[in-house]
Amino acid sequence: MKIQLPETFTASMKDLLGDEYQAYLDSFEEPRIYGLRVNTLKWTPEQCRQVYGDFQQVPWIANGLLYPEERRMAKDPYYYAGLYYLQEPSAMTPASVLPVEPGDRVLDLCAAPGGKSTELGAKLMGKGVLIANDISNSRAKALLKNLELFGISNICVTSETPEKLVSVYPEYFDKILVDAPCSGEGMFRKDADMVKDWMEHGPAYYAPIQREILHQAVAMLKPGGMMVYSTCTFDKREDEEQILDLLKTYPEMEVVPLPRFAGACDSFGFSGAIRLFPHKIKGEGHFVVLLRKNADGQEAKQGKAGKQTKAGKQTKIPAVLEKEPELKAFLEKCGIFEDPSRFMVREDSIYYLPENFEPAKGIRYLRTGLLVGTLKKGRFEPSQALAMALSPGTFEDCISFNRGDDRVIRYLKGETVSLNEGEKPRKGWVLVCVDGFALGFAKGNGMNLKNKYYPGWRWM
Predict the structure, then answer these.
(1) Which of 219, 240, 352, 360 has its Cβ near the most Cβ atoms within 10 Å?
(2) Helices 240-249 and 203-220, interaxial angle, to 10°?
(3) Does 398 qualify as catalytic in the annotation?
(4) Would the pTM of this model clear 0.90, i.e. be above it?
């Protein structure tokens, strides 16, 4: 074993695992597992396997696949098309077991970098709203990119403390995911640096933080709503003890038993949660529990908007369209805007809000809905986020290159792309695709496409 584990950690693991402790140590000699989760808004696992062939199914994740390290899946045009998210298999579990349905109000409370949020957003299928929050503004920016790359339009990305969100959203959400900050013991095999972090901030440091976050999450959950609590650590203080304390404090909360699959272990001290250990599955360590807030006779879907007040001055879209013919002409090419009342214009930016949602005053939003684009001196420029939410079936003027065409990589690098003889000349805004999957916009001027791919996303 190459990783030097702290003695206090090994002692606790011996106590936790008993006769299985040596098998756990032996797992450190095994190669790291690589996984991806298919974006079901755009693709299917079957289609993915048809393209790549040798990928194995993650046994307990319907849209999870294992791939060999040498495939370098982050350097593939389909990655840039948002067809999959690279994610360690056990980390796929929390979002997979939260029963999100289209139309739900969903909160991912500790969401960055977005692996779990992207799955929750895909489950919504464009209906309802996903509020993805991370207290770190810099991490929330990475979260936003991943959600937009996936083409998820009904999002709000915030960077707030749970306490601040509670003041606006009491008993508001149908589903909540709390993938809590933790000591990271389950990731020691994957990332040796986590051992150094553990020595600075171990379970005793994180336990009170987790407890406070959980209490705030309960306050935002509707009666009848469901919540997942998860960590990537093994210590009972961060796992079972958090749940036992929660159940004692909130009698209306109950554990919803999760189905066990091969390699998954039951929780300690109560039954119904899932523990994942690297010596028992193809993945790292995780703890996952599903909870329900009993309605006690209340209508489970009633909910309440809390103390929301509209944020800032907004302009309705009809007034803008009268003055901006270029914007009006562009929107007529898009087939995804069903309800004009959901447009919001703030300063020079145009957004399409999630259904039945208004931004709240006093909340730090990095994004409210889908950023459609910006108005610049009477000219409209569509956003990269909008491009990822479109497809040849929802935008009037598209050009699609096959995955092996060298123009795909040139486009992703920000270069001007030339059309070949016999290809249709293009004028105005064009949606550039790979095999029918959107990559971004270009501006056609005949046989050349001026690249409008977002610089921050370019192939490096």
Answers:
(1) 352
(2) 40
(3) no
(4) yes
